[in-house]
């Protein structure tokens, strides 16, 4: 016998299915109560994460390069004298360089002598070979020349760097006002080419170093001028005035003021 229910009638309730809102979620889940609904927003998936990671890496690398240039500028431009060797020591690991050498011009004929170096002995690199590249850059009004893939590079000027075991090198000319003040060589053994970002850092560093060399030259000229001035002022007052004159003028003046004519 089937029993009957004599109680109050039970209302029939149908479970409603929550409609999906396309584009309103970030990973296919239902939006939380605090999230705004945006039906036009594109769906995002886990595939976007590598792109975000790459962007973060680029920004981090860029910030590191800016910090490096700031440190080099402080060392080369903000002190009493340029600390090129300390700047090179910071630059070398950041750009994976094995050697950096700076040369200074000695006269108006383009001759160079080693000024400072990191990772390279003074006699290892021929200053004459570097001077040739620097002179070519000066004539072409360019700041740098990049020697890539030195093992296969057919440029005759690349031989000196290849013989030292380098895979790539950059030679920069320090030119200010049309005058060659020096040159810089940056070389690597483990990589055959430099990225565009690395070349931008090197180009900026060369500008800093050229300004530092120019300041050093101006300071030296000022000291020489002050030294000559002190020498002039400390000469005995009994010394004949003709000793400060060119020989031709002094001889002529001596004849005119001869004791026999006084």
Task: Describe the protein in words.
By secondary structure, this protein is α+β, with helices and mostly antiparallel strands. It has a domain at 68-220: 2-Layer Sandwich (Beta-Lactamase), CATH 3.30.450. It has six helices and five strands; from the N terminus they run ααββαβαββαα. The chain has a five-stranded antiparallel sheet with strand order 2-1-5-4-3, sandwiched between helices. It starts with 47 loop residues before the first helix and ends in a 6-residue tail after the last helix.
Task: For the structure shown, list the relevant keywords.
262 residues; alpha+beta; five-stranded antiparallel β-sheet; 5 strands
Quick structural summary:
Helices cover 41% and strands 14% of the residues.
N- and C-termini, Cα separation: 166 Å
What order do the strands of the largest sheet run in, or round the barrel if closed? 2-1-5-4-3
Structural class: alpha+beta
* C-alpha-based Rg, rounded: 37 Å
What portion of the residues fall into strands of 2 or more residues?
A: 5-15%
Q: What is the typical, i.e. mean, pLDDT?
A: 78
Instruction: Assign the CATH superfamily of the domain at 68-220.
Output: GAF domain
Provide the helix percentage: 40-55%
Low-pLDDT ranges:
none
The CATH topology of the domain at 68-220 is Beta-Lactamase
CATH architecture annotation name of the domain at 68-220: 2-Layer Sandwich
Helices and strands, in N-to-C order?
Answer: HHEEHEHEEHH
Question: How is the biggest beta sheet arranged?
Answer: 5 strands, antiparallel
How many beta-strand elements? 5
CATH top level class name of the domain at 68-220: Alpha Beta
Shape: globular
Number of helices: 6
């Amino acid at each position: 016998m089937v029993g009957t229910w004599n109680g109050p009638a039970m209302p029939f309730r149908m479970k409603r299915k929550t409609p999906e809102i396309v584009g309103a979620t970030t990973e296919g889940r239902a939006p939380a109560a605090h999230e705004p609904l945006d039906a036009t927003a594109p769906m995002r998936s886990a595939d976007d994460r590598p792109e975000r990671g790459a962007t973060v890496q680029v920004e981090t690398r860029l910030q590191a390069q800016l910090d490096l240039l700031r440190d080099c500028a402080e060392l080369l431009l903000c002190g009493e004298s340029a600390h090129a060797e300390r700047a090179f020591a910071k630059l070398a690991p950041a750009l994976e360089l094995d050697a950096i050498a700076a040369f200074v011009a000695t006269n108006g004929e383009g001759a160079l002598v080693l000024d400072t170096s990191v990772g390279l002995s003074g006699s290892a690199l021929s200053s004459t070979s570097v001077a040739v590249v620097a002179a070519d850059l000066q004539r072409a009004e360019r700041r740098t020349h990049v020697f890539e893939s030195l093992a296969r590079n057919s440029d005759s000027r690349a031989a000196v760097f290849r013989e030292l075991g380098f895979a790539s090198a950059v030679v920069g000319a320090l030119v200010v006002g049309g005058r060659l003040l020096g040159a810089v060589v940056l070389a690597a053994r483990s990589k055959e080419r430099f990225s565009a970002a690395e070349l931008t850092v090197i180009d900026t560093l060369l500008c800093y170093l050229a300004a530092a060399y120019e300041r050093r030259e101006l300071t030296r000229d000022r000291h020489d001028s002050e030294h000559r001035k002190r020498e002039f002022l400390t000469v005995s007052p009994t010394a004949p005035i003709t000793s400060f004159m060119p020989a031709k003028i002094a001889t002529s003046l001596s004849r005119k003021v001869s004791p026999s004519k006084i």
